[in-house]
Amino acid sequence: MPTLIKNGTIVTAADTVQADLLIDGEQVALMGRNLPSEGAQVIDAAGKLLLPGGIDVHTHLELPFGGTVSSDDFFTGHRAAAFGATTTHLDFVIQPVGGSLKEGIDEWHAKSTPKAAIDYGFHVAITDLRDDVLTEIPSVIDEGITSLKLFMAYKGLFQIDDTTLFRAMQVAAEHGLLIMVHAENGDVIAELTKQLLDEGKTAPKYHAVAHPAIAEAEATGRAVALAGISGASLYVVHVTCEEAVEQIALGRAKGFPVMGETCTQYLFVFEEDLARPGYEGAKYVCSPPVRQPKDAAVLWKSLAGGDLQAISTDHCPFWYEGGVEGRIAGKELGREAFHQIPNGMPGIEDRMPVMWHAGVGGGHYSANRFVEIASTNPAKIFGLYPRKGTITVGSDADIVIWDADKEHTISAATHHMNTDYNVYEGMRVRGWPEKVLLRGRVIVDGEEWLGAAGEGKFLRRKPFGDVL
């Protein structure tokens, strides 16, 4: 049976219009005023906004890291995402040590296929770029994957050198693949970490000292320059600071095909949170680390003005008190020293509400720009548009019925993420999803979960996404 959403106001990156939506099957079939309702299931959205489902292109579900595994799998993470108005995400396949890219891809499919409850795709994180792996890179396109991530940090684990990065960029440029980088100077971080530990400085607050902003900026500038030389499209993930934004803006001004994202936590959580009493600062340890309020001000301006193109989460949750009550190990692993704290924060459920509340409600940008950075731009950059990221005839009917006036207090007591704390604990937000549809089917109705494991689809993407 078709579904008719009546009396809502459709908000896309380009337009705000009052119209009805007719959904037939999994797609938007018709948009217009006063559409007839005969033979259709009717949803009345009077007084509500209709937004395209959110797209989070930076997540880590069920990720082995730091001596444990991130606590959300492809079901709990997907359910939480849906309750937060996100209907599509892209997760990172990690190449196994000594293995091939295909082995990593197969492993991530095995994790995701039976559990997926929203639509999803993959990036491939290359950790060992041997000659045979370099030759293998073009084959990921046949797997429906068009983006590669390389790490300029995590020395001795994931870090690659400039030669490796440049060679990967050359292959990517030839085949229309997007290069993503974690931009921090891993050599500097390793040396600073050693010096701090030798001085007995082991508390969570020293994580930020070991990862200075200028080390992020230096690596960002280096990656931008290599993209300019190679011609590869570059996407810098989780940008945190003014200095790194400056490097991206400089590259864009020179005409280099470079883009960047920031993540929600960098707009709300700061170095002072790492110094909270006791061990509580461990909750906020991620890499790159949270910075200063002055950096957040630049990030807000960059999201509004276009120096940064998208907002993601880097969702990588761990239990704060792990290893108890059947929980896997978590942040407690780093009690002896900051460098042993599993890096990452939860956020996949909170991104859309906090960015609407503080971004639109706070006057940083319009509702249209919110849709652009949270859904449309991610879809364009990563080869999903116009199937995803907008509301138009022929697009997937991933629709959020959004109540711009509803207030909600964020808390670990009520969230759906599989972790025992929330980064935004106690934040009162205005603007909340009332219903969430995935390809025309209601999967969230208020507090009721109507989705199911196995109903999410893997999204095969094509190369040559947009450079915005």
> Which architecture of one domain does the CATH hierarchy give at level 2?
Alpha-Beta Barrel
Radius of gyration: 21 Å
Largest sheet: 9 strands, mixed
The level 1 CATH classification of one domain is Alpha Beta
Query: What is the general shape?
Result: globular
- N- to C-terminal separation? 38 Å
CATH level-4 homologous superfamily of one domain:
Metal-dependent hydrolases
Strand percentage lies at 15-25%
Helical percent range? 25-40%
Uncertain parts: none
- Beta strand count: 19
Named CATH topology of one domain: TIM Barrel
Count of helices?
13
Which structural class matches the secondary elements? Answer: alpha/beta
**Arithmetic mean of pLDDT:** 97
What's the arrangement of secondary structure elements?
Blueprint: E1 3-11, E2 16-24, E3 27-32, E4 41-44, E5 49-52, E6 54-59, E7 64-65, E8 68-69, H1 76-83, E9 86-94, H2 101-112, E10 119-125, H3 131-136, E11 147-151, H4 162-175, E12 178-182, H5 186-198, H6 206-210, H7 213-230, E13 233-236, H8 242-253, E14 258-263, H9 265-268, H10 271-274, H11 293-305, E15 310-312, H12 351-360, H13 367-381, E16 399-409, E17 428-438, E18 441-445, E19 448-449
Parallel strand pairs: 1-4, 1-5, 6-9, 9-10, 10-11, 11-12, 12-13, 13-14, 14-15
Antiparallel strand pairs: 1-2, 2-3, 5-16, 7-8, 16-17, 17-18, 18-19
Helix pairs in contact: 4-7, 7-8
